[in-house]
Write a structure and sequence with these properties.
Elements: H1 3-12, H2 20-38, H3 45-58, H4 63-82, H5 88-95, H6 110-120, E1 132-136, H7 143-154, H8 159-162, E2 163-169, H9 172-184, E3 188-193, E4 212-214
Parallel strand pairs: 1-2, 2-3
Antiparallel strand pairs: 3-4
Helix pairs in contact: 1-4, 1-5, 2-3, 2-9, 6-7
Length: 223
């Protein structure tokens, strides 16, 4: 079953109250916030602000709608488990018509990202002692990072232990999409919101904590 299409069908059930774009981004944002707060031991101000953000989003929806959002999350997990390794959220975003061609907002088709990764990612000397460092300055939905991870996987290399990623984007929606997918694919990564040219991530301590998301693998919660 194509669970991506089932998720789009579920999103359409909100028609009349919220646009598909709103439903999609609220859904992805809540997943991202839940994953990150679940990785955080110290429940300080940033944790509390994220928790409040999550609650504010969910309060917009009825009990039945919240159950539907949870079902979408289940479908998404199954798609990641049973389907090919790909940019699932980017595909849903575009197929649901959430992209904005007037602003040039669209995501690269995954087969293009994968072809680029297969041509450019070299497996020589990539191992746990010498991991592949991947810096993505304009993350989008994380498609290029996922493609690089798949390219390593296809060559018999465990990308979860042999690749380290820093991904950045100006758009919070892209940050959330990238973070969710890298987290659930078990990528060792840091995803940050900001301008790569004027605000490059050079030190985690110096970067505003509210704009930094650490994947479970990076946090040491996945072995």
């Amino acid at each position: 079953m194509d669970w991506k299409k089932e998720i789009i069908k579920a999103m359409q059930k909100f028609s009349g109250r919220y646009s598909q774009y709103t439903v999609f981004m609220d859904w992805v944002t809540c997943i991202a916030l839940a994953i990150q707060n679940g990785c955080t031991i110290f429940q300080g101000k940033v944790w509390q602000d994220r928790e409040k953000h999550y609650q504010n989003i969910m309060e917009k929806y009825s009990h039945d709608e919240q159950k539907l959002l949870a079902e979408m999350s289940g479908m998404f997990s199954i798609q990641l488990e049973e389907g090919e390794m790909e940019d699932v959220l980017g595909a849903i975003y575009m197929e649901a018509g959430c992209g904005n061609k007037n602003t040039g907002q669209f995501f690269t088709p995954f087969h293009v990202s994968l072809a680029c990764a297969q041509l450019t990612v070299r497996e020589q000397d990539v191992n746990e002692a010498h991991p592949l460092y991947f810096n993505e300055p304009s993350a989008g939905s994380g498609g290029m990072v996922i493609a690089a991870a798949r390219a390593l996987k296809e060559r018999g290399i465990n990308y979860q232990n042999c690749m380290k990623v820093v991904a950045q984007d100006l758009d919070w929606n892209c940050v959330y999409m990238t973070y969710v997918q890298l987290s659930l694919y078990g990528v060792d990564g840091i995803v940050v919101q900001g301008n790569t040219l004027t605000e490059p991530l050079t030190s985690l301590k110096a970067y505003p904590k509210e704009r930094v998301f650490i994947t479970p693998k990076k946090a040491g919660l996945l072995l």
